[in-house]
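Exercise 3.2. Students should predict the tertiary structure of the chain below and write it as structure tokens, then compare their answer with the key that follows.

Predict this chain's 3D structure.
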Amino acid sequence: MRKKDNKEVTMEGIEKIITNSHESLARMVANGFSEQERKLTEKIEDVEVRLGQKINGLGNRIDTLVDEKVLRTEHKKLSDRVSRLEIAGGLVK
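Answer key:
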């Protein structure tokens, strides 16, 4: 059996071609996995950043609500005072 360049095709040559093909395929697959891992890592990091921002935003909103919250005891005191003033002013019978 002869190739176009007049070199004989040998079993060793065929085995070398097959081995090189397998190695090439293995490198392509490994590179593909590496690329997918890199992309997935980037997406995960992006999600972590966005979730962190949302959590911080919620924390700030909760802090604002707590700062603006009226204590139940203070509300009760004010409600009682308003009721007495309404009764004294004749607004409520």
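Discussion points: The chain has one domain: 11-88. DSSP finds two helices and no strands in the chain.
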